[in-house]
Amino acid sequence: MYSMRVAYEVTGNITFMDRLERLAFNSLPAALWPDVTGNVYHHCSNQIEAPSAPYSYGLYFCCSANVHQGWPKFLISASQISTKTGKVVVSGYAPSTTILPQGKGGTLSITGQYPFSDMVNITVSEDASLSLRIPCWTESASVEVAGTTHTAPSCSFYDVSVLAGESLNLVFKNDIKTYKWQKSSLDGQSMIQGGGMEIHRGALTYALRPANDVNATQIPHAVPGFMNRAVKATGPWNYGILESSLQFKDGGAIPKVPFSDVASPPVKILAKVHVYVMY
User: Fold this and answer.
1) 146 with 199, same domain?
2) What kind and span of H or E run contains 3?
3) Are 162 and 168 in contact (CB under 8 A)?
4) N or C terminus: which one in the chain shows less Cβ crowding within 10 Å?
5) What is the pLDDT of residue 202?
6) Is residue 63 in some structural domain?
7) 3-state secondary structure labels for all residues of 44-72
8) pLDDT at 279
9) Closest Cα partner for 250 from 265, 263, 267?
10) Do both 148 and 244 map to the same domain?
């Protein structure tokens, strides 16, 4: 995440910020225990289990100081000042408040339920010239300010002036997108019969929530409560998906832990599936 942020700020290449968001909203929370006391230090996006041996890490208590830096460092990437134009570049849309340098807009506030909603609201306490990052994964975006709505193309920076206290609404047009993996004979990958499929919409990658079993053990010579946790899938996960059946559903409440693995999700994609039986 840190590497993507630096690469984005140095080059201005929007795809780096797109990758940073994907990591922050998908890979980071998927690798953490809900209370951030453990993380799967090495993992892959399609990992089905988090065992402690022989090929991967369980949810180990180590490096938790590193883990606690993930979200703060992500929020730091929310806005920048362009060295070329002097405009305030709004790069991230997670709810946040930024104190801008003098003469640049005062306080920049971003509210809404992004990334669980396609709409964000932006206000500034002083007049400001903003440059909005329009991600490459969106089809387009509508920018509504001062009663006028404009269309912003994807994968671009959209310049707009906002008056003090004026509300700017940014709405992304997102479609469901799929990416397919080819069948492989490589060790480990051969279990995915006929290849695999990723399902994306906006900044989120959608995943199954198979039934699972958690085996927690106390770390020897560590403070009581510091645990190693191994997570094993106990329900089916190897589904074949009818791609034409994919349907997006939103409107759910955001749980206290936004990326909870037990609470009802605020957004989901429904699909007709067929479970493969492996012999």
Assistant:
1) no
2) helix 2-11
3) yes
4) C
5) 96
6) no
7) CCCCCCECCCCCCCCEECCCHHHHHCHHH
8) 47
9) 267
10) no
DSSP bridge pairs for 278: none
Query: How high is the pLDDT of residue 119?
Result: 96
Give me the average pLDDT of each 10-residue run along the chain (279 residues).
Answer: 93 96 91 78 74 60 63 89 95 95 95 96 96 97 95 97 96 95 72 78 93 84 76 86 95 91 93 76
**Which residues constitute the domain of residue 264?**
175-206+238-279
Q: Which amino acid is at 243?
A: E
pTM: 0.88
- C-beta atoms surrounding 273 within 10 Å: 14
Which residue carries 């230090």 as its tokens?
Answer: 41
Spell out the SS3 assignment of the chain. CHHHHHHHHHHCCHHHHHHHHHHHHHHHHHCECCCCCCECCCCCCCCCCECCCCCCCCEECCCHHHHHCHHHHHHHCCEEECCCCCCEEECCCCCEEEECCCCCCCEEEEEECCCCCCEEEEEECCCEEEEEEECCCCCEEEEEECCEEEEEECCEEEEEEECCCCEEEEEEECCEEEEEECCCCCCCHHHCCCCEEEEEECCEEECCCCCEEEEEEECCCCCCCCEEEEEEECCCCCEEECHHHCEEECCCCCCCCCCCCCCCCCCEEECCEEECCCC
In this prediction, residue 278 carries a pLDDT of 58
Of 173, 188, 216, which marks where a domain is finished? 173
CATH of the domain at 149: 2.60.40
Give the angle 148-154-158 at the CA atoms, nearest 5°.
Answer: 50
The token pair that represents 75 in the structure block? 């929020």
The residue type found at 201 is R
Nearest C-alpha neighbor of 123 from the set 111, 137, 138, 139: 111
For residues 112 and 106, give the distance between their C-alpha atoms in angstroms, rounded to a whole number: 20
The contacts of residue 211 (CB under 8 Å, 6+ apart) are: 233, 234, 235
